[in-house]
Amino acid sequence: MLKASTPGGHWTIRLTWLVAFAALLTAAALLLLGSDAALGLALTAAIVFVVALVAYLIRHQRFLSRLTRAEALVAADDLAAARSLVSPLMDRFPGIAAVQRVAGLVLYASGDPLSAASLLERSRAVDATAIVALVASYAALNKAGDARRAAERSPDHPDVRLALAWAELVATGGDRERGAELAHALGNGTPSRAAMAGTLRAIAAARRGDADGMQDELRAAEARRTALSPSERAFIGYLGGIALRESGALDDARATFTIAIETAPDTIGEALARRERAHIPASSASVQPSSD
After folding, report:
1. What CATH number does residue 170 fall under?
2. Which of 184, 209, 230 is the last residue before a domain boundary?
3. What's the mean pLDDT in 188-195?
4. Quick one: pLDDT at residue 8?
5. Are 202 and 140 in the same domain?
């Protein structure tokens, strides 16, 4: 009965509120009986109630701060620390949208797009960060249609457009021509955006048989490598491997996937690179590019 049911709750706070409420009822009864103690008891109950409310608000603010910190840790590439913060919150408050949202961000970055998509959908988050992660989760799951639907929530955000271009170019059911158009329309912006846009253009070039254009884009993305975090480098490596595979350079693609896997373990880039490497035969000569 006294178990906390909200992030700011605690059994002692709940008990204090019950005691204060009981004291107020007692004060009301004493007032009806004409007792002089009624006013003092009511004032004490009110003070106790306010103190418990302040304690609740402090605990709730700590809860919000933990979520903010976890999201910042994802951005800083410290996924282990982010998971350690969010995991207990998911155990205790799995139905709270704010917890679902941040847990979804952590799980996507950690290489679990299926769980991430489920949590982000349940959270109904409408901020750009969550929408980008949702579109990217569907792209990683090879669900271009779902990625397209999710992208409609914020169609003009540059990172949403990046994730959608990825889905259209690579995911099952993607519109390859539209993906190529999106990739070529993308601006450079930050080093990570520029590198991802470049590797997406490399995939588009490989699909149309433009080996020189593909190599130019991959070299430009590689030149930005030092400005990227390990997880970003792993993800760019995954996309670069896709481009090489589409061009028919299977051995180079396998080597690129391997580098991505080793660059940032337990990240989305590593998980996707590992999946794609598994689809390449152990030993293969270069073949003609895919016509898909």
Report:
1. 1.25.40.10
2. 184
3. 88
4. 52
5. no
Question: Are 122 and 209 in the same domain?
Answer: no
The residue behind tokens 């704010």 is 98
Give me the domain span that covers residue 226.
187-292
pLDDT tens-place string over residues 146-167: 999 999 999 999 999 999 999 9
pTM listed for this prediction: 0.82
| Structure confidence at residue 56 (pLDDT) | 79
